[in-house]
Every structure is written in structure tokens, then in C-alpha cells.
Amino acid sequence: MVAAACRFREAGGRLLPVPANYHDDLAARYDLTGEELKTYRELGILYDRDAEGEFRHCYTQTVGRIFFELVQRDGGYRGYGAQNAPVRLAAQHAVT
Description:
globular, three-stranded antiparallel sheet, about 100 residues, 2,3-Dihydroxybiphenyl 1,2-Dioxygenase, domain 1, alpha+beta, single chain, 4 helices
């Protein structure tokens, strides 16, 4: 996920900025390292975890009505990061 997001940005793509308080909340909920949190914050990566695995995803900025989601699913994570949907929607609304 991190490599793909970095390459996308280096190629001139624009990733959706995520509010800083989202990543502050991640630090309180999960045992992520400081370096992971810093990277996720910089790239706008959202994170979720369940008993089976982990899920990382980020979004491109919307152009017209189109955006793309970059996804990394590790282990047997079965969800779609649904708890992050309100964060994405708020971030998209703030950018437009």
C-alpha cells in the first residue's frame, strides 16, 4: 500500500488528504508504530483490523465524479473498511 501510494504521488497523482484526528484515533485504538502512523498520516492511508487480518486503503482525489481506491488486504481480513467510510466521505466533501 505504502509503495503504491508513493508511486502514485510521485507520478503526479493526488491522494485524498485525511483529517489528522483520524490518525490520532488510530494511535489510540491499535498498536501501530510511530513510523507507521507517520507514513499513514502523510499518505492519507486508512486502516482497519479484524481477528483475521489487516486492511489498508487510500483514495485518489475526486476528478469530476470519479475516484479510485487503492487497497491492501493482509491475512484473512473479510471486511471492506466500512468504519472508515464516514472519514472518506468527510474528506471528499472538504476537498471539493
